[in-house]
Write a structure and sequence with these properties.
Elements: H1 2-11, H2 24-40, E1 42-46, H3 51-54, H4 60-63, H5 69-74, H6 86-96, E2 100-106, H7 123-126, H8 134-143, E3 147-153, H9 178-199, E4 203-207, H10 214-217, H11 219-229, E5 234-235, E6 263-266, H12 284-296, E7 300-305, H13 315-331, E8 339-340, E9 351-353, E10 359-365, E11 370-374, E12 381-386, E13 395-398, E14 409-414, E15 423-430
Helix pairs in contact: 6-8, 6-13, 9-11
Bound molecules: alpha-D-glucopyranose.
Alpha-D-glucopyranose (GLC) binds at residues 47, 58, 60, 207, 249, 265, 272.
């Protein structure tokens, strides 16, 4: 776990593909390409792999010497997918309200979850599952209009030509054997091309870039390879500076990230893959409050599930997806296709804005009744309703002095009985695009 935390910190590197250096035309093209992602807000991450057989840490268990490599690999024999139902997975993802899904095509253990022609270490050829995990899922997702993302680990601890595979030891140093590193490079790049051509991912979710530099991975070439196949594919930020968006992991940033696009990836308990002895499940309330906070701060949530080795999905994952989906049904207007909300200080909680800026959504966590306040709002309010029940509610402007440019405080009276089970949303319709006063008061 410690090493994971350490590596997490390393991930927070700055994208050096400086978007500031793009020409106006290129930056418009990038913005257009990213639009579906910016509007999507919710994605489901799927970590499926042979580690689900024993229910141990994905790949890291042998790297961190919790299990021997041979024993780890014995899990290949138990990976059956015998109850795998891609249509059910896709239905569940659709039901959650997610607009995209990202699935492991190959984790750090090097086991491909699709029918790779480049390497026999894949679940079609080396496990009793004998079937491709990715192809039918992408088909089922696309039927439901859900975008498809491919997680791919650049580092591959199983590959003989890769530099290392166990903590504190290495197979060789690149400087000592460029030929061997070149073999690895052409191996992983052919897998990427294979995935690109077979599955045409709408999004690439690279991982494991921290073990080598951009030059060593040939990150710029990898980016070009992918864009050549599909100029609209989106690439996450774990490609040593050649990605399109940032991927903070597990912990929500306290202040609003300055990135144009970002996505918090987060587990439902404390593990990415199926891990039956980890019972630290987040509740639907916790997931929904984190989700609203992420969206209010301009990000997406990529929420992870860890199916079992037979392809079934644990009840706790299913429950959160369904509760989140039901909440989205009631409140999705305040989430999807919105923009980040108003800066901190105007309202003590998460907010979002409609695209034209004339509707402000306020998120109230838990069982709140009584007054909530908005500070520094220059607009007049046309009306306020509670999403879901649609109840109209009253407000009062307090302390507005006729000769002062400082707006009054808006007190909104939230009656009892209108609360959502998890997070209540107030829809505040303004007289036009929002205008805020953020001065120090006075004359
Ligand atoms: C980290 C871990 C990896 C996990 C990923 C998901 O990079 O190495 O096991 O798949 O995070 O974000």
């Amino acid at each position: 776990m410690k090493i994971k935390l350490f590596l997490t910190l390393i991930f927070i590197h700055i994208i050096n593909l400086s978007q500031a250096q793009l020409s106006p035309a290129d930056s418009t093209a990038l913005k257009n390409k990213m639009q579906w992602f910016a509007d999507a807000k919710l994605g489901i991450f799927i970590h499926e792999g042979i580690y689900a057989v024993n229910g141990i840490d994905e790949s890291w268990s042998f790297y961190n010497k919790k299990i021997g490599y041979q024993d780890y690999m014995k899990q290949l024999k138990g990976f059956t997918l015998k109850n795998y139902d891609p249509a059910y997975w896709a239905d569940l993802i659709a039901q959650s309200g997610a607009r995209y899904a990202v699935i492991t095509t190959k984790h750090h253990d090097g086991v491909a979850l699709y029918d790779s022609q480049v390497d026999s270490l894949n679940i079609v050829r080396s496990t009793p599952a004998k079937q491709d995990l990715i192809k039918p899922l992408f088909e089922a997702l696309r039927k439901r209009n859900i975008k498809c993302g491919a997680y791919f680990s650049l580092l591959d601890w199983s590959n003989y030509n890769y530099t290392g595979f166990i903590k504190d030891s290495s197979r060789y140093k690149i400087a000592d054997d460029y030929g061997r590193w070149n073999k690895f490079r052409s191996f992983f790049q052919s897998q990427i091309v294979e995935i690109s051509q077979k599955f045409k991912p709408d999004l690439w979710w690279f991982d494991g870039d921290w073990e080598h530099s951009a030059e060593e991975w040939e990150a710029s070439k990898v980016r070009d390879l992918l864009l050549k196949d599909n100029k609209n594919t989106i690439i996450n930020g774990r490609l040593q500076g050649y990605g399109d968006y940032q991927t903070p992991e597990q912990n929500f940033p306290v202040s609003r990230p300055a990135y144009n696009w970002w996505e918090l990836c987060m587990t439902m308990n404390n593990n990415w893959g199926y891990h039956p002895d980890d019972t630290h499940w987040k509740t639907p309330y916790e997931v929904i409050t984190i989700f609203t906070d992420v969206v209010a701060n301009g990000g997406n949530l990529l929420l992870d599930i860890g199916p079992r080795a037979d392809g079934t999905i644990p009840a706790e994952d299913v429950n959160v997806l369904k509760e989140l989906g039901a909440w989205n049904q009631r409140n999705g207007e305040a989430i999807f296709n919105t923009n980040a909300g108003i800066p901190q200080g105007h309202f003590y909680g998460p907010t979002t804005l409609s695209k034209d800026g004339s509707v402000l959504y306020l998120f109230l966590q838990g069982d709140i009744s009584g007054n909530v306040t908005i500070k520094g709002l220059l607009n007049d309010i046309k009306n306020i309703t509670v999403l879901g029940p649609g109840t109209s509610i009253n407000h009062k402007v307090v302390g507005k002095i006729s000769w002062s440019k400082v707006p009054g405080l808006v007190y909104i009276d939230v009656p009892k009985g209108v609360q959502d089970k998890y997070v209540t949303v107030l829809k505040v319709v303004l007289d036009g695009p929002i205008r805020l006063y953020n001065g120090k008061g006075g004359l």
